[in-house]
Each structure stands twice: as C-alpha cells, then as structure tokens.
C-alpha cells in the first residue's frame, strides 16, 4: 500500500471495509473483527490510528507485540484459521500496522466462543437469526434447504400411486416388486431420513405437502393495470400440492390470463399465446427448483397489463450474477430437487433454462435483489392489437 492510498483511507474514515484501532491488547476482540471481515467481503484493520484519524504513535516494540497478537488471533481464535497479511507504515507520528483480511472462502467463520460476526456498516454485529445462519451454511455448501426434514411428513403421506408410476416410468420397477422396505428405498433415493421426508421428498411425492409446508406454494394475481398497489384484481389463485401440480396449475393460470393471437390461424383455433409458452415453462421450473427453501416466502406470479413478474425467494447464490446466468452459468442450491427435476419437470439443467427463455423471447429483465433477498424475472408484454 503506497502512502497516497494509506492517507486516502484515513481521510475517508471508517466504513464497512476499513476499521481503525488505536491499539489492540485483547486477542478475542481482534478475532471477532477478523471473523466479521471474513464473513463479509473482506477488509483492512489499521492498528495505530484513532477513530478521528489521528495517529496513536505506536513504537517498534508495539509492532512486535502486535505481530504475535495478529498471528495468534488468526490461527487460534478464528475458526477455521485464516491468513491475514500485515504491512507496517511509518508516519511522522509513529508506526501503523495495516492488517489485510480477505473475504473468506470457508464461511461461516466463528470466534473461540462459536459466535458468528458480520460487518454492519463500519461496526460489526453478531448473527443470531436462524435463517441467516442457515443461509451462510448454505452458501458454503454445508447444508441445503431441500434436505431439511419436513416435520410431520412420514411415509404414510406418500402418494403411492404417483410414486409407483414414477418408479415404473424411470426405473422399470414397481412398488409391489421391491426387494427392500419402502422406507429404505426412499432413504436410498435421498428423499427421507429416519422415517421423515425431507423438503425435496415432500414436495415431489407426498399427497398434500402444502398442508405441512404452506409457504412453499405459488401465489398468483392478475391486476387490471400496471401497479400492484390496488385492492382490485381480475383473477387470483394459490397453486399448492405436489411440485408437478404446482407447475401445471401455474402454467394454466398464465395461459388463461394472457392474450391469444390468431396469427393467421383459423377462427376455430385457440391461437398463439402472446409470449411463447416455453418462456414460462423455463422460468417457472427455474423458480421451483432453484428458490431458497430457507426463506419463509412464497413464489409470486403477478400479471400486469404491461408485464408478468415471477418473484422467487432468495437472491442468486454465491458468485452468480445476472450477466453470468444469461450466459448459462449455474450454481446448484437444491441438489436433491435438481437430481429429480429432469424426470418430473421440463428441466434440462446445465444452466440452459434462462438461455432458452431469452432465445424464445428476448424482452425479459432479471433483477437480483440482494437487499430484499429475492430474484425477479420481468417478462414485458407486447402491445395488444386493438
């Protein structure tokens, strides 16, 4: 770090990337600061700088002690250990140690007390909300929302006829020909654990998953204009039940509420949908398979006069961006659902759904709303003749 960069940081004051410390004597307090930076986007601690930007006047002896303190904090008081880089800057009013802490690749990081810290503006805060902790473990691929037990949904809730048809179609076997207990098969298929369905198994194969998992449905509304801030609506429906039913009912809701164009067909023809159906097949499948099942919110399907919005709980995972998904990049958030999706929904995987939707109808906008933890697909409607 050159002197110009160093002075610019001090002149700007503390923020979410830069923390000032006049001195450090407590290894646990330093470890908490390191944890917060690792769990956020990384940052720099300047030791030897007061909150007002003045220098504390550290000596060479202070720097020697601080080097040992930083090393101990990083290796013994941060879990998993980290490797910060230090640099000593000489000023006319004493030395300053610059401690650079990269964004962690093994989140969540904890201190010696098992506490998880993140940055909150120029300060830090302790993470205690269950959903936020779960999302951090999810981002590290340590846990997935679709493998969480669906409390109350045991083997008696299995839709046996539906599951039997699935086995016959895709595995050339039937329930009455199994050479193992049904519960063992379901566990081997990663749909159940200790007699309880996980979220994936419940959504795919139980009779009425929405009774136990009421938030994992699609809520659809048709508004007369271009604004949702109205008490007037033209149509509404909650799509619940098995995932395949939710998908089919959502498509049906869309097709009955969009315009159909004659497009040179006979008067007796249903006509062509104003937007190709494949667009909604791909985007609805994407929403059902890739939504964040740690977030207690429904998928929303909103139809306006000028657009259709499909809003999924959870922003894009990890390092994905809108630009990346448009190029076919993907990141598997719900691996169990993904492993079954191609057999149940029109899902091909490999991140190709967004690409196909855009190829069929380019006038789609994607918004990765990280602040509100949602992902939105906005399909612009063409002007309707007459």
Detailed description of the structure:
With 386 residues, this protein is α+β, with helices and mostly antiparallel strands. It folds into 2 domains: 3-128, Methyltransferase, Cobalt-precorrin-4 Transmethylase, Domain 2, CATH 3.30.950; 143-386, 2-Layer Sandwich (Heat Shock Protein 90), CATH 3.30.565. Helix content is 34%, strand content 22%. The chain has helices spanning 3-12, 27-39, 60-76, 130-139, 160-171, 182-188, 199-205, 209-212, 243-257, 277-290, 322-326, 335-344, 352-360, and strands at residues 18-21, 43-47, 78-79, 85-91, 94-101, 110-111, 117-120, 123-126, 149-154, 192-193, 196-198, 218-222, 235-239, 260-261, 272-273, 299-303, 307-313, 364-369, 374-380. Strands 13-12-16-17-19-18 form a 6-stranded mixed beta sheet, with helices on one face. Helix 2 packs across helix 3 (60-76), helix 9 runs antiparallel to helix 10 and helix 10 (277-290) runs antiparallel to helix 13. The longest helix is centred in the first third of the chain and has 17 residues, at 60-76. It is globular, with a radius of gyration of 27 Å. The model has no long low-confidence stretch (mean pLDDT 91).
